[in-house]
Design goal:
about 110 residues; mainly alpha; Helix Hairpins; 4 helices; elongated
Length: about 110
């Protein structure tokens, strides 16, 4: 099988998206810092975007729908990253740490 023929197989994209999603979930569960958790959530959103684009390319009659959903996911990811980083900076200023165990005592 030629490496160029792999780009025309649906399962290859789905396996890559599943690996990205698995790495994101693993990172969310095992990272102790808020920055690591933010990067892991971005991996999960990238896996969702890849799934939308894959199903749009191979199965949808109109391929623009998957592209539109992916653009929305990218916008949401950018907004989430900006808000999360501002919260992380505020937490660091108050607690001098971004470790999740130090922040667990927050009362809301």
């Amino acid at each position: 099988m030629n490496i160029l023929n792999l780009s025309n197989i649906l399962e290859v994209y789905l396996v890559i998206a599943a690996l990205l999603f698995g790495m994101g979930i693993y990172g969310l569960l095992h990272r102790r810092t808020l920055i690591g958790m933010l990067i892991s959530s971005e991996l999960i959103l990238a896996a969702a975007s890849l799934n939308f684009m894959t199903f749009s390319r191979f199965l949808a009659p109109d391929p623009t729908t998957g592209q539109i959903f992916t653009l929305f996911i990218m916008g949401i990811a950018a907004a989430e990253a900006a808000i999360a980083l501002s919260i992380i900076i505020a937490v660091y200023r108050n607690y001098k740490s971004i470790d999740t165990e130090d922040v667990a005592g927050l009362q809301g």
